[in-house]
């Protein structure tokens, strides 16, 4: 069985993954020097090591800690490192929109590769332009993905009656379709155009939601703008109760959660890839099952 090592962001998840695998979890000491440098001391490890670290709320800080720790774990005796990164940041920067723009996901994976990471396992990866295979092919780090959509749909089903499932854009179709299957309902996806990193346009469809409960499903809620626009559009069409379920509650805008309620959301449901007050779905067991498969 592998040893499980916790990054500073998710000690509880590391502990529950270790318990599910019937193995021991280690908790390296992660401190800050007065000038801001990260200082890490880890117990010795050997063989395959599962390292658990999410990339929120400070993705760059978490990344540096992940690089320093995984590099250290290899030096201490790890032969294979599987980094469990429930929320994998930088995946939205997967293409060059303008000359000179960094394809940051590539740079980030190269850093992990250089540190000695062999595999990355994440949840509902933002694969809007690249497939999992293509993203995995960017470096020698093998990417694995699990989905929280079944658990999110099940949770939403506790509150809503046979809801129409709505995905904000074509990329969310894989989650909307699956959720609708599980809830024995129908689904649709809207047309979303991103005008700038902070501005989007949602084109409403002629979807009949009058008097129906609606479940909006997406991978990430960051500023909340996308879901707010979808909720407003659904409300104007006479939707009944509305739940928004999302895997990663980045909630980067200070007003993001309040804005969703203001727009008319009745229920907000997310997972604990990023811990927040809406984390009702624990992805620990889903990750542990996948680990058993790839170990
Ligand atoms: C985009 O393609 C993603 O799937 C999400 O819809 C997006 O990241 C949400 O961002 P925001 O909450 O800032 O609108």
Concise synopsis of the structure shown:
The chain is an alpha/beta fold and 295 residues long. It has 9 helices and 16 strands. The protein has a 6-stranded parallel beta sheet, sandwiched between helices. A 6-stranded parallel beta sheet has the order 10-9-13-14-15-16, sandwiched between helices.
List its traits.
295 residues, single chain, six-stranded parallel β-sheet, alpha/beta, 16 strands, 33% helix
What does this structure look like?
The protein is an alpha/beta fold. Helices cover 33% and strands 27% of the residues. It has 9 helices and 16 strands. It has helices at 11-21, 59-76, 104-115, 132-136, 149-157, 173-182, 225-236, 256-263, 284-294, and strands spanning 3-6, 25-26, 29-32, 38-41, 47-52, 78-84, 119-123, 142-146, 164-167, 187-189, 191-196, 199-203, 214-221, 242-249, 267-271, 279-281. Strands 2-1-5-6-7-8 form a 6-stranded parallel β-sheet, with helices on both faces. A 6-stranded parallel β-sheet has the order 10-9-13-14-15-16, sandwiched between helices. It has a two-stranded antiparallel sheet with strand order 3-4. Strand 14, helix 8 (256-263) and strand 15 form a beta-alpha-beta unit. Helix 1 crosses helix 9. It is globular and about 60 Å long. Ribose-5-phosphate (R5P) binds at residues 128, 168-169, 171, 218-226.
């Amino acid at each position: 069985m592998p040893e499980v090592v916790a990054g500073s962001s998710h000690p509880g998840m590391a502990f529950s993954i270790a318990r599910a695998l019937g193995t021991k979890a280690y908790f390296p000491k992660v401190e800050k020097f007065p000038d801001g440098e990260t200082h890490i001391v880890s117990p010795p490890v050997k063989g395959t090591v599962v390292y658990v670290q999410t990339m929120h709320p400070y993705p760059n800080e978490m990344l540096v800690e992940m690089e320093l720790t995984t590099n250290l774990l290899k030096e201490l005796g790890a032969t294979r490192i599987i980094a469990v990164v429930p929320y994998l940041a930088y995946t939205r920067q997967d293409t060059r929109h303008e000359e000179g723009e960094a394809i940051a996901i590539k740079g980030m994976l190269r850093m992990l590769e250089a540190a000695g990471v062999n595999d990355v396992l994440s949840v509902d990866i933002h694969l809007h332009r690249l497939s999992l295979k293509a993203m995995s092919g960017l470096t020698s780090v093998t990417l694995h993905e699990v989905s929280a959509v079944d658990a999110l749909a099940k949770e939403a089903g506790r509150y809503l009656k046979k809801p129409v499932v709505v995905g904000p854009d074509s990329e969310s179709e894989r989650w909307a379709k699956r959720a609708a299957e599980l809830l024995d309902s129908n689904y649709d996806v809207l047309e979303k155009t991103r005008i700038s990193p902070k501005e989007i346009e949602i084109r409403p469809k002629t979807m009949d939601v009058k008097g129906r409960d609606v479940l909006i499903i997406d991978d990430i809620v960051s500023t909340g703008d996308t879901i707010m626009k979808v909720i407003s559009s659904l409300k104007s069409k006479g939707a009944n109760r509305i739940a928004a379920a999302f895997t990663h509650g980045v909630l980067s805008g200070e007003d993001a959660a309040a804005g969703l309620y203001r727009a008319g959301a009745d229920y907000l449901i997310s997972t604990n890839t990023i811990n927040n007050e809406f984390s009702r779905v624990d992805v620990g067991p889903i990750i542990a099952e996948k680990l058993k498969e790839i170990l």
